Amino acid sequence: MSATASRPTLEAVAERAGVSRATVSRVVNGAHGVRAALAERVRRAVEELGYVPNQAARSLVTRRHDAVAVVAAEPETRVFADPYFAQQLRGISKELTAHDNQLVLLLTEGREDHARVGRYLAGGHVDGALVFSLHLDDPLPGLVRDAGVPTVFGGRPGWDDGRDDVVYVDSDNRGGARDAVRHLAGLGRTRIAHITGPLDQTSAADRLAGFRDVRAGADPGLVARGDFTSGGGERAMRELLARCPDLDAVFAANDLTAAGALRVLRERGRRVPDDVAVVGFDDMLPVAEQTDPPLTTVRQDIEGMGRLMARLLLRGPDRGAGAEESTATAPDTPSGVVLPTTLIRRASA
Amino acid sequence: MSATASRPTLEAVAERAGVSRATVSRVVNGAHGVRAALAERVRRAVEELGYVPNQAARSLVTRRHDAVAVVAAEPETRVFADPYFAQQLRGISKELTAHDNQLVLLLTEGREDHARVGRYLAGGHVDGALVFSLHLDDPLPGLVRDAGVPTVFGGRPGWDDGRDDVVYVDSDNRGGARDAVRHLAGLGRTRIAHITGPLDQTSAADRLAGFRDVRAGADPGLVARGDFTSGGGERAMRELLARCPDLDAVFAANDLTAAGALRVLRERGRRVPDDVAVVGFDDMLPVAEQTDPPLTTVRQDIEGMGRLMARLLLRGPDRGAGAEESTATAPDTPSGVVLPTTLIRRASA
DNA sequence: TCCCGCGCCGGGAGCGCTCTCTCCCGCCCG
DNA sequence: CGGGCGGGAGAGAGCGCTCCCGGCGCGGGA
């Protein structure tokens, strides 16, 4: 299996350098209390032998793995979050790499996978977990909690019931939505509609909340339900047009939805943005730039979210991560971190 | 770190079941030579204690890790391959999961990362590697080879000179391109142009080769160079239109390119498909379905590629010539497996 | 001068598991 | 009825590493 002829051990390095295993070990993990001359000799031996520490042996005694699990449910990574997830992954990867941690990817699909993930996490193979859980009824969070592993969530978990032992990173869906709607209002639009995402996802719910923040008393007929797909956007747009033919702006819960809406608007002969202004969400590039006209939308710092998740995990809210011990610590590690969004102005609004 | 109070060991299970460690070990790894009654008792003890084997300890002695590294360079996962890479990852994940292997994700960016990856692979932390290497001058393949780890490549490596026993999985870029061009020809088009991808990537080169297979003696002016982006597609399309105003079909190296071409064609008042038929490649859904008109394109089984890569690796790439149901590849392409593509007909051609 | 203390280094005991080797017991065959 | 044989179970030796502890040499204070 491991192909190469037996790799050199600490022992071998020690012998070559004429010191003990302990000394080599000290040098290898950040020399400290070793005379410079000796340390140098050890380093040379390491170099010459091409020594690489055996992580398994190390973990066995330290009980640390320098590895973090990233858990995501299949559907997320598929439907709407594709480039999204990849970008978060990139952010996570960078941060982990910077701290010499490995990234173990766990993609789940269906119930049995959940059990598997639970077992894996509980098995103590990793030092922590980054979990993407976008649905209200997602079983993952519970599993992870039972596993007793330090965890940071990506996206606000639906069951964030105020317990502050839940650490998550999200972008400011609500604030971003407010910005989008205010932008439309600032354009002088008065009949602003909203196509939601699937409301069992917190991001969709939060965007709707943001819309309502700004258009408090708006005609409820101006809100139609979508599902983060372009097909859903088309359907919702038709519905809206039927109910409120006089609408002059649409805030779509994501870019795909906006693309669908755009298509229907064109088909109905409404000019964008002249007759109807449209704003999306996500700034999913291949889509937002490709639409006609290019989409004004709300951009999130997706990679930054990933980075932050990893950083929070590594900084460790741990210590108190053991389930029951009620740490009366000062809450300077916020339970939820929300990243700002920015409105990207293109031609559609 | 690993939070929970010390997890139960083999020893603990053994004690509870009233047997020796060895026996528990035998039961845990596929009972074999243990009396049913005893085995059952052990299994109960495992259950009751919630025992999970310590992978580190196991690896230490077996020298296996049941883990596979997936190595990909940043730019790939970014520019063109975003949803693409995610899908392959999904396929890989499924296959690995089915064989109880973990997926360690290594994203690289820049030279120092390469060194890091090399060290990691050489460090014997994983049983094998799946490497995505699309560029001719990619340093990754060399690194991996030096690391002496069983490897399967995703995409034909540029330096596959026919001598190397390189195992890779690719989709039939050349054949798919041929299908696309034949389809255009079958539509009665006679002035068929091609917008290439960046030709330092084998996929782009192979698609160009496929185009040439069908249009052997074609006017060289009918080939323009793109870069797999929509901007590149626009530029190339303008160029083509300037050189050959009478062209009546375009085969674009990927969907993004096609989308760019489509935009230019519309801007120039050419009707698609009436005046100019357009075919893309990839069937990148958010793009291909979103264009106007929806894009006829060549679909690859991306997830299947991922799956196959993992399967080949787990099968043990060294004895790939074994008497298995190996795919029908010519022996002169030593260990490359090429997956078929299918033409998806939509409105653009 | 002696002794205490401190800074470096080596010895050794495991971490939790697998695997070989040995032992034991029951059964079959001579 | 005894010896050989084979299958099932246990004992023990590590895998490569970290970390505790004890020893040793040197310097400074009494």
Automatic annotation (TrEMBL), chains A, B:
Domain (HTH cro/C1-type) spans 9-52
InterPro entries associated with the record: Cro/C1-type_HTH (IPR001387), HTH_LacI (IPR000843), LacI/GalR-like_sensor (IPR046335), Lambda_DNA-bd_dom_sf (IPR010982), Peripla_BP_I (IPR028082)
GO MF = DNA binding
Q: What keywords sit in the KW lines?
A: DNA-binding, Transcription, Transcription regulation
| Transmembrane domains' residue ranges | none
Q: Which Pfam families match?
A: LacI, Peripla_BP_3
Superkingdom to which the source organism belongs: Bacteria
Quick one: where's region Disordered? 319-341
Question: What CDD domains does the database record attribute to this sequence?
Answer: HTH_LacI (cd01392), PBP1_LacI_sugar_binding-like (cd06267)
Q: Where is the HTH lacI-type domain?
A: 8-62
**Name of this protein:** LacI family DNA-binding transcriptional regulator
Q: Which organism is it from?
A: Streptomyces lancefieldiae
